[in-house]
Amino acid sequence: MEWCSITCRALVVSMVLLLYNMLLISSPPAAAATTEAQVEAEAEALRNSTWWWYMENTTSHHCTWEGITCNTEGHVVRITYSYIDGKMVELSKLKFSSFPSLLHLNVSHSSMYGRIPDEIGMLTKLTYLRISECDVHGELPVSLGNLTLLEELDLAYNNLSGVIPSSLGYLKNLIHLDLSFNYGLSGVIPSSLGYLKNLKYLDLSINEINGSIPYQIGNLENLTHLYLHHCYFFVYNLVSFFVVLGFLLISRKTRKIQTKEIPTKNGDIFSVWNYDGKIAYEDIIKATEDFDIKYCIGTGGYGSVYKAQLPTGNVVALKKLHGWERDEATYLKSFQNEVQILSKIRHRNIVKLQGYCLHKRCMFFIYNYMGRGSLYCVLSNEVEALELDWIKRVNVVKSIVHAVCYMHHDCTPPIIHRDISSNNILLDSKLDAFLSDFGTARLLHPDSSNQTLLAGTYGYIAPELAYTMVVTEKCDVYSFGVVALETMMGKHPGELFTLLSFSSTQNIMLTDILDSRLPSPQDQQVARDVVLVVWLALKCIHSNLRSRPTMQHISSKLLTQSPFLGPFHRISLWQLNALEI
Prior knowledge:
- The protein is an alpha/beta fold.
- It is built from 14 helices and 27 strands.
- The strands form 5 sheets. An 8-stranded mixed sheet has the order 1-2-4-6-8-10-12-14. Strands 3-5-7-9-11-13-15 form a 7-stranded parallel sheet, with no helix packed on it. Strands 17-16-21-22-20-19-18 form a 7-stranded antiparallel sheet, sandwiched between helices.
């Protein structure tokens, strides 16, 4: 009986071992099939994202695409998206749940827009997440709290709103948290942030965060960098007073650390970025051989512009102030003003500020490089002007409209450029247009008189500024009208203004004022677009600012067909002026 029991047990053990070995033998193919299916799912998600739109017609493996890194099994572990050539792409188009192995996601300084989807919380292996300097808006998803392995979270320089979710307190491995320059984040600082014991860097500045500072923040023993400026805090008891006092001590410690770590030559204020973090000051100096004249591509009253290729391969434009300008309070104010404005706004038709350096010995901006220079230079060049055909010229005007309309109607408070001219419209290699030079830009506060000193370029300044000295959005509208006419005429419309003031517009034909270097538009749709642009431009240069349309009105009109006024060669300026907008 005992022998039978032992034998039965042995038999059972043998059968279990046999089944186990069978499972071991059969498992690898199943796992391999699962891995293969997952890799294909990741590839399909990338193809459908529209992020890599320029790869639509390629058959190359997704792991070879720029910005994609895979592990040995073919799973995507790193995604970097930094394309800024004018095509806006939506953040939520990428199916985040398809990338269970993803460790690193960086879409900073790109043309990304939209909301951060809740699905992002499914990237549970993520250690690095940067979605800064984009056009991302809406509230922070609570699901960010699922990313418990995250070490860096940077969502700065966006348009985020709502409260900071308390679920961020679950990110126990977090070292770097930056939510600054969103302007719309509100409510109180969640006390749960005090549980982030590994946190070294915390920046919540330039937001609408208010209330009291939670005492739990004092638990962050590793914190060396804390920025809370331009938020709205109050101290409601003695405990909070000492917490605030502790913050001040931390700030003093931070300043000492920064002074020790950053050499003086790097500037008092030095902020330069690329797609993967900081660019060293030394890289700028090396790329230009300390701003050697051979890299200079233009000079003006504001300083000189240099072309430089950085170690990353990116080509940038550096606008460096002249030595004597650094000592002038006016130029310093202009420099700081451009940093403030361009750090706030993000638009596909506004030149991208990549960084800047402010120092008593060296002050410069870093922008995306625009290969074709200014609109003025292109129109002045006989060969390049021919390349800028009617379709491209209409698109240049539309781009300016989109940019200025965004500044006037989508920014709070509205931003007035004050110096829209053909010299400040830059064209890239594809002849796409970008508005630049925000040194004289102003925020239009509704509760202020908005009186100002005269600023702008002669020939583009609205006439009312000469006697009212009050800046309004209609000043930009006038300047835009001049540039739009200049684009169609191929030269500054000063002579046309003289003709309009001394003779009847009934005798001036549209074809007489258009750029004679280009043949008359043969396509009916192109002809209609040219008529539409000239009609709108004439309305914008009206001497009475109340009679000028808003940029929003102009934008809406560009979406509609221009009215039929008979054969193109018979249209007069009188007909266009008589037509109500």
